[in-house]
Amino acid sequence: MEEYEEFSDKQRRILERYVTNTSSNIFVLRNLPEVIKGALFSRYSRSSLGLRSLLLKEFVHGEETAFDEIVGKEQENPEEQLVAIKKAQNFYDRILDGYGDDSIGELGGAHLAIENVSMLAAKAIEDSRIGGSPLEKSTRYIHFDQKVHDQYLYYREPILMTSAYKEAYLKTCDFLFETYSSLIPPLTEKIEQYFPKDPEKSKAAYNAALRAKVLDCLRGLLPAGTMTNMGVYGNGRFWEGLIHRLQCGKLAELQEIGAKSYEELSKVIPSFVRRCDCANRHHESFAQFLDSMQEQLQNVSHQQKVSDTKSERATVNMIAHDPDGESKVAGALLYAFEKAPLDKLQEYCRKLPQEEVAKIFEAASSMRENRRHKSPRALEHAQFTFEIVADFGSYRDLHRHRMLTQERQVLTTNYGYFIPQEILDTPMEKPYREAMERAHEVHQTIAEELPEEAQYVVPMAYNVRWYFHINLRALQWLCELRSQAAGHPNYRWIAQQMARQVIDAHPLFEHFFKFVDFEDYTLGRLTQEQRKHGSS
Asked: pTM for the complete prediction?
């Protein structure tokens, strides 16, 4: 594309620091704080100028922007840069507020490290799905039995620490960690015996796969209060919504994380999170709404007295699906290539013989060579609802999928627990079960008075009940990804079950599950580790 903006040599020299290309119609911003990038793009939508011209005219040479002070201090003195941002706050707030569109909050973002928080809190953070990308410390690659100052790393919940349950909580968590640590050597030895190293395979790959197998088996002993670390990238809109919810959380830990996150993000993207201040009218209004809604729903729930805690085994149950899903997807697949309305196309496909609908699905799926070849959005016309009862460890893995509607119930020890096949009928089974039963007794005692805080002592092997409401396209991705050989056996089973139940209800949809792996594996990560380490 031809160059349509002309800059002097002086202007080019200025721009070269802030854009990757001064002549192309496509370029990337660089060396600019998030507040400037966000405000620049906000202003851009209402300006006839190109972005580079706008940057020069209204930001680099603008009197209100404190541009030189903000950008100039970026490398020299971060503290002075923060002062400069505060100085120009009214300018940036006015721009970001001026367009009255919450999507403006998506034009700037920040990376936040969240360390030494419980796995329970990590799930609350990851509940905010859109606009954020979290990564969490893995139970598969890291041993969680390290101590700091002679203490295992689990959350000492302040209410529990001042209650009559303090000693029971501490002793139970310590016992869970001690059992976890003590079972690592014998389980490693057992798995080595059953799956000895192939002399032609990489030792590093074998050891990595072996460690992953052992830790996958034992992660169920870790309580939900186990400390973890997270790295989260999010745009301003994501952070605002997350901090609102955290600061309104029922748990003291969530409130503390929310307050600290607001404090730190205010240093780099203040204009995007200013409404999260507890004194801000937006936050006060949100807090009042959330508190009132939850109170009313709680009251209604108590009146209904619906309860069922009989399930003590893992289950996957497709509780709803659209009988017309196949014709809806088929019609939507044809839509871009026809000149008829969508409802007419879907009605047409509803009357087609099954073999003709199968041809449409074959045309949409036959060229897929791997699971990363994503299907057309037409698959989103078919909807499914699954209710799942499975161990909290599996929930943690599957919870990270964002393109779906999901909700979980409070963690309890009412639904039974998972015990790995590798531990059954071995001397390791007794201490494993003893740890589970001790945690159950303590949880039940605490939960009578403090059901929210009692969640911290629940081991990850205990089952939790949750639901997924998901479309076919998102389900295809989830099932094909989570059924791969390298995955944890528990969530592989869940992914396989969901795919099977959809295929049973809609046989023609089998076309879209061609990369679901229904096989069973022993040392599941060995192939992937072998690719990484080679044959040495």
From this structure: 0.86
